[in-house]
């Protein structure tokens, strides 16, 4: 099936990172179309019509989120672009910002206008240091050419965009932790309510949106909300960027329309190009490390035997018993040689390291899960440990201020649900299971 490209259509045009080339390719036309011609509420309506759902993970409808923004007289409002992207397996925002930075800037101008923001931020993870320079260059070019600053296009609208670097913490991707960090504090999540739409940056109404979400506002305004909603299927409208990695022939960032099946995505030459060395597919984490892993038999077909598609509804079909989530679109493929216990342990270590420590179930539970998984992986596990792991993850889920706890619990729950026999085999075959683990010496050094 020929794919539709809305965000990456010009990604391979030479020099597209520069203002001149981006403009020549039709860049900034959405700003010309909107400023002075549409009211901010009309822009929000168009985004609502498009059915765009937040691309940061939760898939919340963007237009609805914008319409929740409080608008008290005389109080500034802010748009914050979440460029933290620290979910393992997710690198799509990096691609957008690195190669087409002006698309994000253009989307921010239109979105900030809709929200009535006169200052907007890009909060970017510290590890993307080189992209900070790219973004700052793009912002400077946009300003030189009259798209930012005072009285943009002579339409009486003022906007400044600032780039703020985080220090490199996964938790700072959570919107309220991000806001704390942006304000110069330790990035601990806030209790909600109040939601950022009422009390966000500097105590003012704030919308936090993912990089891809804001970039998608450009094609929406160019083609119209209804036409955008006509692409995709059901409530999965428009296109979605997927960063694909793991055991595939062609890792990379792909733009799909959400009628693409999972099978087509993994095996077609247009996307992942199949699994190297003719190996069989074992499992997949389709939406970034936090979403449940799915075994091959439930990945390509749902439990009802229907084809599974790369969209919000189809991927979650069957709930967590047999389905998973679209999440942030970090698609990680595992071939038959991969050890699920080892991967689960690696993820548990990550969540333990990244827990901010505010909530006891997350702070203590993630460390406890990691310790047990390490024992199982290194041949010191007991059968009772598997039930204990299940019990711990169950007590973390839903019992923390922010969803980092859920994100730590779901991978463990799904791994046990679908691969319990592999955990048991590790317990009953401590020596063999270690030998079978590719890369074990490196793991021992890293995870002593
Ligand atoms: C632990 C944690 C990490 C997160 N990391 C990110 C991130 O890196 N990027 C992102 O856009 N959203 C992330 N989110 C989701 C944000 O809290 C928020 O929902 C999102 O930025 C909203 O944007 P959207 O509506 O455009 O998806 C994270 C959430 C949690 C709980």
Label the CATH architecture of the largest domain: 3-Layer(aba) Sandwich
- Main sheet: strand order: 3-4-2-1-5
Write down the CATH topology of the largest domain: Rossmann fold
Count of the separate structural domains: 3
CATH class of the largest domain: Alpha Beta
Query: Count the strands?
Result: 12
Helicity range: 40-55%
Shape: globular
- How large a portion of the residues is in β-strands, by DSSP E? 5-15%
Can you characterise this structure?
This protein has 20 helices and 12 strands. It is 44% helix and 14% strand. The chain has 448 residues and is of the alpha/beta class. It has helices at residues 19-24, 29-34, 40-50, 62-67, 92-99, 101-115, 129-144, 175-182, 211-223, 225-229, 262-267, 296-299, 312-315, 319-322, 340-354, 360-377, 383-396, 404-428, 430-435, 440-446; strands at 78-83, 119-124, 149-152, 157-165, 206-210, 232-233, 236-237, 239-246, 252-257, 281-285, 294-295, 330-335. The chain has a 5-stranded mixed sheet with strand order 3-4-2-1-5. It starts with 18 loop residues before the first helix and ends with a helix. Bound molecules: flavin mononucleotide (FMN). Residues 54-58, 60, 65, 82, 84-87, 170-171, 173-175, 208-210, 213, 402-404, 407 line the site of flavin mononucleotide.
Summary keywords:
alpha/beta; 44% helix; disordered C terminus; 20 helices; Rossmann fold; Ubiquitin-like (UB roll); de novo design (two linked rop proteins); binds flavin mononucleotide; 12 strands; 448 residues
List the helices and strands and how they pair.
Elements: H1 19-24, H2 29-34, H3 40-50, H4 62-67, E1 78-83, H5 92-99, H6 101-115, E2 119-124, H7 129-144, E3 149-152, E4 157-165, H8 175-182, E5 206-210, H9 211-223, H10 225-229, E6 232-233, E7 236-237, E8 239-246, E9 252-257, H11 262-267, E10 281-285, E11 294-295, H12 296-299, H13 312-315, H14 319-322, E12 330-335, H15 340-354, H16 360-377, H17 383-396, H18 404-428, H19 430-435, H20 440-446
Parallel strand pairs: 1-2, 1-5, 2-4, 8-12
Antiparallel strand pairs: 3-4, 6-7, 8-9, 10-11, 10-12
Helix pairs in contact: 3-6, 5-6, 6-9, 15-16, 15-18, 16-17, 16-18, 17-18
């Amino acid at each position: 099936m020929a794919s539709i490209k809305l965000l990456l259509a010009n990604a391979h045009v030479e020099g597209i990172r520069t203002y001149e080339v981006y403009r020549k390719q039709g860049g900034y036309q959405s700003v010309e179309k909107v400023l002075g011609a549409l009211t901010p509420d009309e822009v929000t309506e168009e985004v609502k019509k498009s059915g765009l759902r937040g691309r940061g993970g939760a898939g919340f409808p963007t237009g609805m989120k914008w319409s929740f923004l409080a608008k008290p007289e005389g109080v500034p409002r802010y748009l914050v672009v979440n460029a933290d992207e620290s979910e393992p397996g997710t690198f799509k925002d990096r691609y957008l910002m690195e190669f087409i930075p002006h698309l994000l800037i253009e989307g921010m101008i239109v979105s900030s206008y809709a929200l009535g923001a006169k200052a907007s931020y890009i909060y970017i993870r510290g590890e993307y240091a080189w992209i900070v320079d790219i973004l700052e260059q793009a912002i400077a070019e946009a300003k030189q050419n009259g798209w930012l600053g005072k009285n943009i296009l002579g339409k009486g609208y003022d906007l400044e965009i600032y780039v703020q670097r985080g220090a490199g913490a996964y938790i700072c991707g959570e919107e309220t932790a991000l806001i704390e960090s942006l304000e110069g504090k330790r990035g601990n999540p806030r209790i909600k309510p109040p939601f950022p739409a009422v009390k966000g940056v500097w105590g003012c109404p704030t919308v936090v949106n993912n990089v891809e979400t804001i970039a998608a506002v450009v094609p929406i305004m160019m083609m119209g909300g209804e036409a955008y909603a006509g692409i995709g299927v059901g409530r999965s409208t428009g296109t979605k960027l997927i960063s694909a990695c793991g055991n595939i022939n062609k890792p990379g960032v792909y733009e799909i329309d959400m009628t693409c099946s999972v099978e087509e995505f993994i095996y077609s030459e247009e996307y992942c190009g199949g699994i190297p060395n003719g190996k069989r597919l074992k499992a997949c984490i389709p939406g970034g490390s936090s979403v449940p892993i799915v075994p091959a038999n439930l990945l390509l077909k749902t439990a009802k035997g229907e084809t599974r598609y790369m969209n919000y509804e189809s991927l979650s079909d069957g709930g967590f018993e047999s389905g998973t989530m679209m999440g942030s679109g970090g698609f990680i493929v595992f071939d038959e040689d991969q050890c699920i216990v080892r991967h689960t342990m690696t993820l548990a270590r990550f969540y333990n390291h990244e827990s901010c420590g505010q909530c006891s179930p997350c702070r203590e539970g993630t460390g406890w899960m990691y310790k047990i998984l390490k024992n199982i992986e290194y041949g010191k596990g007991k059968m009772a440990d598997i039930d204990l792991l299940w019990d711990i993850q169950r007590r973390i889920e839903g019992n923390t201020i922010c969803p980092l706890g859920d994100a730590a619990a779901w991978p463990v729950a799904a791994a046990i649900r679908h691969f319990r026999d592999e955990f048991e085999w590790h317990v009953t075959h401590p020596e063999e299971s270690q030998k079978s683990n590719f890369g074990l010496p490196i793991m021992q050094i890293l995870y002593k």
